[in-house]
């Protein structure tokens, strides 16, 4: 009992310290998120919509925090099943791609402003060619930009990466298990899950690679950044949960990644995934300041 009281006392002190010196209060985190959300809302009716991601967009401004800008190209739409009221769309093919990836098929008379390649799987849009095209359109001197995974980074904008993505307007069949699985904690709520379904998912121009192969450059990787935004919203997470996420990121950077054996093989995205999984599976955790250390450990 005495140990429990001591743990609660230390947890409250740590909670206050994180709020005052490291992460910020609940209101400060909310204001940071609102700042980036306003940027998104300004572009919502434009042909290219801005989607903010990365730690800063999540309301965290820790040392080394990144800010990624995703540009949703709305000039073309992707569907898994062809809609009856639309003709000029790209079709999603997951049967001929590795898990977490898909192929994008283009109709012969499609107005998609980029050429396709005829293959045994149909007229496909190459993610490699698409990204190269974007780099050539970004600046006149392509030496000023470089590809980093699915992103494009520039030498004159530090800590900012640009990613142009396409949107699949239907939730992919290969990810339906996530919608239906049992969640002991009841998190996320059915209302949030319904919103996630309505937002669909994104496709980013990067393909799978293995030690023995350079992969299939016609593949596009699924991105569930829109879903993560909804899961990570203030009304979905408590401030204690956000602080736990910040502590996981600090633990990763200061301790795990300083281990030469790990050699920076872990990333903060893994920490977010761990938090989401714990939130789903742990029905008995009480996420309050007094339990901060207990929840973290």
UniProtKB/TrEMBL annotation:
Family annotation (Pfam families): Mab-21, Mab-21_C
Domain Mab-21-like nucleotidyltransferase per the UniProt entry, residue ranges: 159-231
Full protein name: Mab-21-like nucleotidyltransferase domain-containing protein
Domain of life: Eukaryota
InterPro entries in the cross-refs: Mab-21-like_nuc_Trfase, Mab-21_HhH/H2TH-like
Family annotation (PANTHER family): CELL FATE DETERMINING PROTEIN MAB21-RELATED, MAB-21-LIKE HHH_H2TH-LIKE DOMAIN-CONTAINING PROTEIN
Domain Mab-21-like HhH/H2TH-like: 244-297
């Amino acid at each position: 009992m005495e140990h429990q009281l001591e743990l609660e006392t230390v947890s409250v002190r740590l909670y206050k310290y994180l709020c005052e010196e490291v992460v910020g209060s609940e209101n400060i985190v909310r204001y940071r998120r609102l700042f980036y959300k306003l940027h998104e809302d300004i572009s919502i009716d434009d042909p290219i919509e801005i989607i903010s991601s990365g730690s800063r967009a999540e309301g965290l401004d820790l040392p080394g925090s990144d800010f990624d800008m995703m540009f949703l190209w709305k000039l073309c739409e992707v569907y898994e099943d062809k809609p009856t009221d639309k003709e000029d769309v790209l079709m999603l093919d997951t049967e001929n791609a590795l898990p977490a990836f898909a192929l994008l098929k283009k109709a012969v008379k499609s107005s998609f402003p980029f050429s396709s390649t005829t293959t045994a799987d149909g007229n496909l849009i190459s993610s490699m060619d698409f990204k190269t095209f974007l780099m050539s359109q970004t600046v006149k001197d392509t030496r000023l930009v470089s590809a980093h995974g699915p992103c494009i980074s520039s030498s004159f904008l530090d800590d900012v990466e640009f990613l142009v993505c396409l949107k699949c307007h239907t939730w992919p069949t290969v990810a339906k298990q996530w919608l239906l699985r049992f969640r002991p904690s009841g998190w996320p709520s059915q209302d949030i899950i319904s919103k996630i379904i309505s937002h669909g998912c994104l496709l980013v121009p990067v393909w799978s690679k293995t030690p023995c192969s350079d992969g299939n450059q016609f593949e596009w990787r699924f991105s569930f950044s829109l879903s993560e935004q909804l899961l990570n919203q203030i009304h979905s997470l408590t401030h204690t949960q956000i602080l736990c996420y910040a502590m996981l990121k600090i633990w990763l950077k200061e301790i795990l990644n300083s281990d030469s054996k790990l050699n920076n093989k872990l990333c903060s995205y893994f920490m977010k995934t761990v938090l989401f999984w714990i939130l789903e599976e742990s029905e008995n955790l009480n996420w309050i300041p007094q339990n901060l250390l207990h929840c973290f450990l």
